[in-house]
Amino acid sequence: MRRLTLALTLGLMASTAAHADVTVYSAGPGALIKNLVKGFTAKTGIKANVFQATTGKVMARLEAESANPVADVVVSASWGTATSFAEKGLLLPYTSPNAETVPDFLKTDTAVAQGVAGLVIGWNTKSGTPKPTDWSDLTKPEYKDLVTLPDPAASGGTYTLVEAFTANGMTDVLEGLKDNGAIVAGANKAALNPVLQGAKAAVFAGVDYITMGAAAKGESVEAIFPESGTVVAPRPIMILKSSQNQDDAKKFVDYVLSPEGQNEVAKVHLMPSRTDIKVDRPLIGDLKLLSTEGAPSREEVLAGFKKIFN
Amino acid sequence: MAKATTTGAEGSALLRWIATSGLLLVVAVPCLFIIIQAIFPDIGSGSLAAPFSLFFRTLSDPDLFGLAGNTLLLGVGTVFFAALFAVPLAALRALFKVPGAIIWDALLLIPFMIPPYIAALGWIMTLQPHGYMEQVTGINLAGLIFSVPGIMIIMGLNTFSVVYFVLSRTFETIGARYSDVGRVFGAGQWRSFWRITFPLAMPGLAASLLLVFAMSIEEYGTPAALGRRIGFDVLVTGIENRISEWPIDLPGSATLSLVLVGMALVAFMIQRWLLTRRDYRIVSGKPQASDKRALGLWAVPVSLYFGFITFLATGLPILAILATALSRTISGGLTAENMGMDNFNELLGKGSEGLVALGNSLALGVSTALLAGLLGAITAYSVVKGRGRFRLVLDALSITPNSLPGVVVAVGIILAWNQPWLPITPYNTPFILLLAYICILLPQPVRYATASLHQLGDNLESAARVSGSGPLKAFIRIIFPLILPSMVTSMILVFAVASRELVASLLVAPIGFQTIAVYIWTQFDQGSAGLGMAMAFCAIMITTLIPLGLIGLLRWLSKGQVAGLN
Questions:
Q1: Do A199 and B131 touch (CB under 8 A)?
Q2: Which residues bind Fe cation per the record (chain A) (predicted)?
Q3: Could you say which residues from 97 to 156 on chain A have a Cβ atom under 8 Å away from some Cβ of chain B?
Q4: φ, ψ dihedrals at B114, nearest 5°
Q5: Which CATH superfamily is domain B12-42+62-558 in?
Q6: Interface confidence: ipTM more than 0.85
């Protein structure tokens, strides 16, 4: 009991002593934010504390804390959060000197992409099915009952793809998937897991870095960029206006956009947002991108998807 | 409950005061903020603008009917399967000399220790096409597991041990003695069981089935893992989605939580009504001989039956967890070259991170068990033996968190404890997790203590008062030792759940503070399912061995004097 009290007291002291440091709320991947913080502290001597969860959980915590905000820097996996925060006037305008080579569509006055994820077909190479090359391949009889897709309500990336399909009149592919017995299986990981074990052959609208990460671990899965084009999901990093620690928060953003920081981004198979960082994987410039211009509102896109899959 | 005849057993004012202030701090404060959140959508930023603007919109959502109906269906179905698995086992265990009874008890403790989302994942990986079962036997049961009855069976297997432990203790206390009276008067063995033993066990059965109902309508992991695949959404997944998916809808989730609380309160009223219809007091201070019958020829089939149910509830999930933890890659399957200790080496050799998380969770689990157990016993005592209208308020307040999803408790706690005007706050320290866990788990010790207090005659306490002890002393010296066996069981349950709680921990954990569940979740999120399962396996082993050691120690200390521990 005494050791327990000691442990709790030490924990209490540790977390109160940490108040002057930069506090970062980050959506996954956990390894990336851990290495970024490690590198940042080594370079600047400033400590950083991390709360890591999904984009939704990070946003829920920010919303519940809004009377008395704790975070200085927020990293999300959905660009829409940055737009919405900016509209509510929650963000500190800042343009990092390291953001010069970041393309314009990946930065605003108040946010800049930490890295970019692409949407792919995640295909199990040992599934005994032919290798798909385009989205519509998965509507063929060879893939009957063998396809999963993440729920666009739970996965920002899948949402953007469905949005683009809606804008480009490609929803017949989604209908074909439904007719072919594809199932909607929760968030990104829940959709990939059955493919790894072989219960399913492919994820439609998988996230590239997650699929590549699994392949790097030795799983028999491959990330395929479809011929007809795909969408990307930039991951915004932003500083809250309420931060008591704005100078250090800016230094953190600078570090993330420095060559060292961008190399950490590349290590987890994300595309770096800076165009002058060279890595061994398809980059934004190499991808054929589908436009989401002319897409209806989020509610309508999701309602259209639900209509097909229910 | 024969209120009029209580003599000097009306409870101590000090205990009542402790129960009231404890419940206010731990339960009422976060609940109040959830209600405020449901009414005032912008309370998070300290504004009272636009009251009720979202409240009625959420309640008039046509989906709500479906969600509420599914929740009810799932709750009732789970209770059915839990009772189906538990009642025969408990009756056999309590009334007969079952071979290896203590071993079965120990094995049936393990389902408490397996996080439900991990168990669900284990079942999926075993039964789906190309899963472990198909790899071993060539057949898969995907049709069963991805169905509504499949979800009910799995949740029944996860929860039936709650009923088993309460009921076997209750049957044991009733003993064969009462039914012997029936048999003397000519009733057959079955008849005396159904007419005497079973009705007298009603408080235990009702309390534990209510607990299962509340646990299953509040459970997130299993419906999320299995239900989402077949479009079976319940209130909790609806609430969780509103909090976890951008754009966040805190007022909507708070409103849905109130619907869920309403459901649990109705179940609670039904339980009260059942209990107050009759007098269930069976512990009168007379010495009781515990005389169990021998099974004779039936020993083998009974053992096989115990073995079968235990394998489904404990063996299969553990084997699936172990298989995943030992696999280098998931796509590699169950082949010799894909098996290795890599994940365990990484977990234990990586230095600290996983071990720190283990330490944190164990410390929090033990503190929660002690504090919740104490507060629960005091609350139950004030409710059962006290007088006045406040009893109902205390009782209702103590069951409320049972139906609040962890994620909503977490939001209520953040709203309550992160106010800028608070001079000192546990927020962002490990104490906030302690508060959250006690709030979520308090209903368990309260239910267990209430059930055993209902069986305690007032005359024991009256005797103590007549012999000159004050109400406090009577509680400590007479009541507390008598309800201790039930309390130990419930505290083990609290310890097990607290040390693996996920949804609330994920949201309110202090920055940089990891618990077992958060660690496992992070591993899954990074695609290291094997490492997560290795941690889950170690955590299950540790959280099982600690309570077992504790029970062994208690038995040794009490030398069998405390009933129910054997």
A1: yes
A2: 209
A3: 124, 126, 151, 153-154, 156
A4: -85, 120
A5: MetI-like (1.10.3720.10)
A6: no
